[in-house]
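TICKET: design request
STATUS: open
ATTACHED STRUCTURE:
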């Protein structure tokens, strides 16, 4: 009995000691936490600035975090205290206290972490909305398809190699089988695993500059099977398919490639048509796709590689015009034929215009030159003629002209009943606004020039040889040294004198007046404009 009584007394003493230890720990814990919190707040308060957005100059959420940690710590200590001193009398009190404190801890913790999650979500949403807003303000949003096609034309092979893709084409952005109305670059790959490594990772945007504007072109990755890749070049292209492609893209391709027309037709080789359906581009001159992209050999449409064909046609004159710049002209009663060079005009005092034809002096004034006269004076026979509908017809009358060491040019006033198409033959849309002065830079760059002569009857290109030349030219059996004329590689023959010469942008350089076996010589247009006080009709 004594032993049992001793054991019970010992157990009570152990529990009493344990309760005392827990009580001491609880008090010490409260004191330590409280003292540290007070020290922390005093220190932070001293460092805080008046304009700090949050309490005591602490980072956002610091106060909430301290309160939450304190309550959790008190909850743990009190729970341990009641667990160690779990007499029946205190069980009900312990249960009530822990329930209330637990509810408070859960509420505070939920509030803290909920606020944190909300703040993070809000930040993500704000950042996303900002990106979308910035992108919507950008001029590059929904990049025009012609810009993307231009980028593909310039970079396709490079991108295929760099990003290990089977093909690159124009497409619409897709996500989870939903297509959006956003133009993009579609990279066709066999597997998305092929571009995981950093060297070949396809970026979200590809940056491209065109016409001095910067574009951010969105990209999309389309996975295709090996069979699709093989059949890309093997699928049978039909004229019906090309008609469908033209319905969607014709206007864009006309603008992009500078073509006169685009047809669903059969390929042409020489004079023969082959049984190969193609997209046929009609151009004024194959070698002169001015300000446009070079037409590719294939255009991809709906996973078909459709072959292209480029057909050159002389510029069709306006239906009502009688003659066109580039046609043959000559002085009535003579045989010295030349080329109609440029349609020009002068402003009259009453606001009207007087229209003239410009060509060489030795073409319009061959009668005077044969008599040794190098400056035109009014004569009884000043008619300039040309072939219209097979008949020799008067089109203008000479009014002014001169031949000297820097000039070989003359003007004829156009008859009121004659219509002249001022588009240079072979180059629809030419001449373009402006003139081109030749400097040494053009020589270094080997600037390309173009012309269409009445005798040659086709568009011819050459390059600038030098800034100026002083050739000896035969006139009536005598040699005359000219000055400050422009030498270019041979682009003319006898009968092409007077023909307009333009650069690769369609700006006028001058008119041809002479040639030898290797060189054609051009009178600078500025010399002519200054001398005759004329203005040019630009196409």
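STATUS: resolved
RESOLUTION: sequence designed for all positions
ATTACHED SEQUENCE:
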């Amino acid at each position: 009995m004594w032993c049992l009584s001793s054991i019970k007394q010992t157990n009570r003493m152990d529990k009493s000691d344990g309760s005392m230890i827990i009580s001491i720990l609880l008090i010490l814990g409260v004191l330590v936490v409280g003292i540290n919190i007070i020290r922390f707040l005093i220190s932070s308060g001293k460092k805080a600035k008046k304009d700090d957005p949050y309490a005591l100059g602490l980072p956002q959420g610091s106060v909430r975090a301290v309160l939450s940690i304190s309550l959790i710590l008190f909850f743990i200590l009190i729970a341990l205290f009641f667990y160690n001193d779990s007499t029946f009398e205190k069980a009900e009190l312990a249960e009530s206290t822990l329930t209330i404190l637990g509810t408070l801890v859960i509420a505070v913790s939920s509030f803290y972490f909920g606020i944190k999650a909300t703040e993070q979500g809000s930040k993500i949403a704000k950042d996303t909305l900002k990106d979308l807003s910035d992108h919507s303000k950008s001029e590059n949003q929904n990049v025009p398809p012609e810009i993307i096609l231009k980028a593909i034309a310039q970079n396709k092979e490079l991108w295929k190699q760099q990003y290990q893709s089977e093909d690159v084409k124009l497409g619409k952005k897709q996500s989870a089988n939903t297509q959006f109305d956003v133009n993009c670059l579609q990279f066709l790959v066999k597997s998305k695993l092929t571009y995981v490594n950093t060297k070949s990772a396809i970026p979200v945007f590809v940056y491209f500059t065109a016409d001095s504007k910067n574009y951010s072109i969105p990209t999309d990755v389309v996975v295709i099977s090996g069979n699709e890749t093989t059949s890309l070049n093997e699928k049978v292209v039909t004229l019906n398919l090309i008609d469908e492609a033209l319905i969607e893209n014709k206007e864009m391709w006309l603008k992009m490639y500078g073509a006169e027309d685009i047809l669903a037709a059969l390929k042409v080789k020489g004079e023969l048509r082959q049984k190969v359906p193609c997209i046929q581009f009609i151009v004024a001159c194959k070698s002169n796709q001015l300000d446009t992209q070079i037409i590719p050999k294939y255009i991809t449409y709906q996973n078909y590689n459709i072959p292209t064909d480029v057909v050159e046609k002389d510029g069709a004159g306006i239906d009502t015009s009688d003659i066109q710049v580039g046609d043959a002209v000559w002085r009535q009663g003579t045989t010295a034929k030349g080329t109609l060079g440029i349609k020009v005009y002068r402003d009259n005092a009453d606001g009207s215009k007087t229209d003239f034809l410009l060509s060489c002096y030795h073409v319009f004034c061959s009668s005077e030159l044969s008599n040794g006269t190098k400056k035109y004076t009014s004569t009884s026979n000043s008619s300039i003629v040309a072939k219209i509908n097979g008949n020799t017809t008067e089109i203008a009358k000479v009014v002014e002209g001169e031949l000297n060491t820097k000039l070989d040019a003359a003007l004829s006033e156009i008859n009121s009943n004659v219509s002249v198409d001022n588009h240079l033959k072979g180059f629809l849309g030419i001449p373009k606004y402006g003139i081109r002065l030749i400097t040494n830079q053009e020589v270094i760059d080997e600037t390309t020039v173009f012309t269409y002569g009445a005798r040659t009857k086709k568009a011819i290109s050459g390059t600038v040889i030098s800034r100026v030349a002083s050739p000896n030219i035969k006139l009536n059996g005598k040699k005359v040294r000219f000055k400050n004329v422009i030498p270019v590689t041979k682009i003319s023959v006898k009968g092409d004198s007077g023909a307009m010469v333009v650069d690769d942008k369609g700006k006028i350089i001058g008119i041809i007046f002479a040639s030898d076996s290797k060189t054609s010589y051009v009178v600078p247009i500025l010399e002519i404009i200054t001398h005759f006080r004329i203005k040019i009709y630009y196409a």
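CLOSING REMARK: The mean pLDDT is 77. The CA atoms of residues 44 and 58 lie 7 Å apart.
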